[in-house]
Specification:
The chain has 414 residues and is an alpha/beta fold. The strands form five sheets. Strands 11-6-1-2-3-19 form a six-stranded mixed beta sheet, with helices on both faces. Helix 4 packs across helix 11 and helix 6 runs antiparallel to helix 8. It starts with 13 loop residues before the first strand and ends with a helix.
Length: 414
């Protein structure tokens, strides 16, 4: 008999992959009793994604492989499956409700599942699939606003849910890119919901809050009230539009414009110190020139104002603006720009703060930035649904996956 003791089995690492317009981000975490411990981060410029949708599979796979390699090297371990984010203007969210009779005069888990299933029974075009079915609240007979109906007596159970759908092709292309990079997709999650997991507090979700995730090609919006998502939407503008404006206005390359935007950009001219000058490299290797920072701000401010105005319209059109007592949380890389929260407050007429990943351990200094909110939020989803089935490219699995995820949520609530 061997004198060596068997080493305890290590918990499988949880991995989140953010397929962004400007970057592909891979974050690896180790589940611990205290929560998630970040052990590896890999980031690579993305050249195969436009407005959150894959448009060039080989370029996306190449960037993903490099990001995975960097993350695995940092973590000192490899992984087989990951939770992937999905975004883009094809995403549509809407509310639905369903009613069932309570079988034995007392609400059981089966009754709750039937009620939620009745709410998701809506006609969806063949080119779209359900990504999320999120329970909001229940009504037992005339008792509204029930979050935990299990065990309550009654004859009629009504459920209210938020359903998120997306283009079948977009989800399949994300899965295909991951598979070609040697990764199985364990779940697909809407990116603003993932960012909300990382940035929002329970109190904010309960009071009513707007999450505005400003990405490279799109800006995602999610409204929460009474602890549940009540509206989700997408604005087809993001940080890359600001970068393009800077490149055209200052006659420099896209890469130089991005660097200038990050290091010297300001979204509100009234916050600028007087007579500050920046150096702008010119195209074709010509000598760089000096430009007043106020000129840069005059290029950036109108575009940021336009993006925030469109977001404001999305919030107003949702019909829930009056419930947003906790205000707005801005996240995503462009939200780091100086003056962004101040201009957002002026535009939305609501209190605004920047949101960064919270409640994590390990490499906190690396990921405690708004640009990592989505990737870290995907990890939180992964931890909640670690026992979920593998996501495969079959029509029936899409429904099965939603049902399994829904049961997991209901299990946590009840």
């Amino acid at each position: 008999m061997s004198g060596f003791m068997k080493a305890p089995k290590q918990a499988e690492p949880i991995v989140g992959i953010d397929f962004g317009t400007t970057k592909i981000c891979v974050v690896i975490a180790k589940p611990t009793p205290e929560g998630l411990e970040i052990i590896g981060v890999g980031k690579q410029p993305s050249h195969g994604i436009r407005k959150g949708v894959v448009v060039n599979i080989p370029a996306t796979v190449e960037a993903l492989k490099k990001a995975v390699e960097i993350a695995e090297l940092m973590a000192g371990c490899s992984f087989r499956s990951a939770v992937c984010g999905i975004a883009g203007t094809h995403i549509k969210g809407f509310n639905s409700s369903g009613v069932v009779a309570i079988r034995n005069k007392e609400v059981t888990v089966t009754d709750v599942e039937r009620a939620v299933d009745a709410a998701r029974a809506v006609a969806i075009p063949l080119d779209r699939e359900v990504i999320h079915v999120i329970p909001q609240e229940f009504t037992v007979d005339d008792q509204e606003g029930v979050h935990d109906p299990i065990g309550m007596n009654g004859v009629r159970l009504e459920s209210k849910v938020h359903i998120v759908t997306g283009a079948v092709s977009s989800a399949q292309n994300i899965i295909k890119c991951a598979n070609l990079a040697g990764i199985q997709v364990s779940d697909i999650v809407l990116e603003p919901l993932a960012s909300a997991e990382a940035c929002l507090t329970l109190d904010e979700k309960e009071l009513g809050v707007v999450l505005v995730d400003i990405g490279g090609g799109t800006t995602d919006v999610a409204l929460f009230s009474k602890g549940a998502v009540v509206h989700s939407g997408v604005v087809s503008m993001g940080g890359s539009h600001i970068t393009n404006d800077v490149a055209v206005g200052l006659r420099c390359s896209i890469q130089d414009a991005e660097n200038i935007k990050i290091h010297s950009g300001c979204a509100m001219s009234s916050l600028l110190p007087s007579d500050e000058v920046i150096e702008v490299p010119l195209l074709g290797g010509r000598k760089s020139r000096e430009v007043s920072r106020s000129v840069l701000t005059k290029i950036i401010e109108p575009r940021v104002e336009e993006i925030l105005t469109l977001v404001g319209q999305e919030i107003a059109n949702s019909g829930y603006k009056h419930l947003m007592s906790a205000g707005v949380v801005l996240t995503g890389g462009p939200s780091l720009m100086e003056g962004m929260p101040e201009l957002a407050e002026f535009t939305f007429e609501l209190p605004v703060r920047r949101g960064s990943p919270q409640g994590i351990g390990g490499l906190v200094d690396v990921v405690s930035s708004p640009m990592y909110s989505t990737a870290v939020g995907l990890l939180t989803y992964g931890m909640k649904n670690q026992s979920g089935i593998q996501f495969r490219q079959t029509e029936s699995t899409v429904y099965d996956k939603v049902v399994n995820r829904m049961k997991s949520w209901l299990g946590e609530v009840f």
